[in-house]
Design goal:
mainly beta, Phosphorylase Kinase, domain 1, Transferase(Phosphotransferase), domain 1, 2 domains, 3-stranded antiparallel sheet, flat, Kinase-like_dom_sf, Protein kinase domain-containing protein
Length: about 200
């Protein structure tokens, strides 16, 4: 797993920092533990104003050893209400202008969702009852995401795929690039969150 989920490559900076672990602030079997550290020294000297020897800081560590690809708050919806994610990949592409040089191109592979977006469909083809069922299903799915602290800011007809000609309530949501993490109340009422057909 460590080799399958490496951190971003980045590059070495102009100096090294020697740290001493002072206290374990938040360390579990989950990724990104928090550790209180003290700066011992920087080699060579760090840029002025960055930090000083003896200064106490918090280190948030990324350790691929503890990455769990199943630990995804929306994993249970993959292949049903959201496209299935097959993973993230990198491809090294040669740079013709520079001999023995290459550039890394990163991408993710997701399911190609069949069907038609709501934006491309024709509402007049559906009865009032069917349209109500579709809206009810949209609210239900969005609320399930919201309950898991995933707020959608780009919920629009173009991002809702209708995947079954026989059952228009079979929907898949697209485009999660602009989500946010809401403070979810204990009791979630879809009625109180939707006004005039839109989210508040």
């Amino acid at each position: 797993m460590c080799l399958e989920t490496p951190p971003l490559a980045g590059h070495d900076g102009s100096f090294e920092v020697e740290l001493e672990i002072m206290e374990l602030l938040q360390v579990t079997d989950k990724p990104n533990p928090l550790i209180i550290v003290q700066v011992c020294k920087a080699i060579p000297e760090a840029p002025p104003g960055l930090f000083n020897p003896g200064e106490t800081l918090v280190a948030k560590v990324f350790d691929p050893l503890f990455v769990d690809t199943e630990d995804d708050i929306l994993h249970e919806f993959q292949g049903t209400h959201i496209p299935k994610l097959y993973g993230s990949f990198s491809r090294s592409i040669p740079v013709p202008e520079q001999k023995d040089s290459s550039r890394d191109v990163r991408l993710i592979l997701i399911e190609l969702v069949p069907g038609t977006s709501m934006q491309q469909d024709y509402p007049d083809l559906y009865s009032t009852k069917s349209r109500q069922k579709i809206i009810k299903q949209i609210i239900k799915i969005e609320t399930r995401f919201y309950a898991r602290s995933v707020g959608l800011t780009n919920l629009a007809p173009r991002n809702v795929m209708m995947t079954d000609d026989e059952d228009p309530t079979q929907l898949v949501f697209l485009d999660f690039g602009d989500t946010y993490s809401p403070n979810v109340p204990k009791d979630i009422s879809p009625v109180s969150r939707w006004v005039d057909g839109g989210l508040i």
